[in-house]
Write a structure and sequence with these properties.
Elements: E1 2-6, H1 10-21, E2 25-29, H2 33-42, E3 44-48, E4 53-55, E5 58-60, E6 71-74, H3 81-87, E7 97-100, H4 107-115, E8 120-125, E9 128-133, E10 136-141, E11 145-148, H5 156-167, E12 172-174, H6 178-199, H7 203-206, H8 212-230, H9 239-249, H10 256-262, H11 273-283, H12 288-303
Parallel strand pairs: 1-2, 1-6, 2-5, 3-10, 6-7, 7-8, 11-12
Antiparallel strand pairs: 3-4, 8-11, 9-10
Length: 307
């Protein structure tokens, strides 16, 4: 399959590496020239739970030189979604599938407004990866990736992508309730990401701080109440237990929000904890912990003059 990974930071590079190693025609697309140049010159260096190796994979900063592809996997920051999909139009034919594996909520709608919702399928991954330096990533933890059609059907195209991902070593399952899965991941991110960004601690280290888990639990439980009020059926039985397991499984990982802060970049707080606050107001559910976390991260962004 011909695949373009748009947004080839830690997670995009990880998926691109696995898919290229299994024989797919993969191109990594990213605006960070230093990263792309390093990959083209030296290969993509991967270390961590899946082993250490150099993966030779094509990479570019120019969407228009890629050509048409069968699958676009979108890993860009949520606030860059619309621009990224517009930049990717030269890669998208009537048959091209666009899979969003981004954090937060609202990405499906943003993509659909540009290319039509029929092109879009959705994913949520529990993999963990950290960008070490240009051209090098650390695979911090391995988890299941869920993909699904928006209407809950099990189509031939979703089965084909599931098979390609599993063949590449990306453990993947089809979800018939992908919105519930996205919200389930949202809750885990809401309980981990801002705490890691504020403390500069890796996922596993958060559990070692007295009182930290209690605050993380409060953030998650507020999100659970908002999801219930919205009528969303979550795909995890116990979100707090899932949060703890995620911290343990990706113990050495710096979460994406922490990585953004360290690189002086804008975070995705508005589509994670901020989304819980926004939807909480709509349905009349109070979310004081998530409101505090959202405000603190916005303040942290201002203090480092994010680009």
């Amino acid at each position: 399959m011909r695949i373009a990974v748009v947004g080839s930071g830690a997670m995009g590079s990880l998926f691109g590496a696995f898919l290229a190693e299994s024989g797919n025609d993969v191109v990594l697309v990213d605006v960070w020239r230093e990263h792309i140049d390093a990959i083209n010159r030296f290969g993509l260096k991967v270390s961590g739970v899946s082993g250490e190796r150099i993966v030779r994979v094509k990479a570019t900063t120019n969407h228009s030189e890629v050509g048409l592809v069968d699958l676009v996997i979108l890993f860009v920051k949520s606030y860059d979604t619309e621009q990224a999909i517009r930049d990717s139009l030269t890669m998208i034919s009537d048959e091209t599938i666009v899979l969003t594996c981004q954090n937060g909520v609202g990405n499906v709608e943003r993509i659909g407004e540009v290319i039509g919702i029929s092109h879009v399928i959705c994913g949520a991954t529990m993999q963990g990866a950290t960008l070490i330096r240009p051209g090098e990533i650390f695979h911090a933890g391995s988890g299941i990736t869920y993909i699904g059609e928006l209407d809950g059907s099990v189509s031939e195209r979703i089965k084909k992508i599931e098979a390609i991902f599993n063949n590449a070593g990306i453990r993947t399952e089809i979800s018939r309730n992908i919105y519930g899965m996205i919200w389930s991941k949202l809750l885990i991110n809401a309980g981990i990401n801002p705490f890691g960004a504020l403390t500069r601690l890796r996922n596993g280290e958060l559990l070692e701080v007295p009182g930290m888990l209690e605050l993380m639990t409060q953030a998650v439980n507020e999100g659970v109440e908002v999801a219930k009020a919205l009528g969303i059926k979550l795909e995890i039985r116990d979100p707090v237990e899932a949060l703890i397991n995620t911290c343990k499984a990706t113990a050495k990982n710096k979460n994406s929000m922490l990585q953004d802060i360290e690189r002086g970049r804008r975070t995705e707080i508005d589509v994670i904890n901020g989304a819980i606050v926004k939807y909480g107001r709509k349905v009349g559910v109070k979310t004081p912990v998530n409101e505090l976390l959202t405000t603190l991260i916005r303040g942290l962004e201002k203090s480092i003059s994010v680009g």
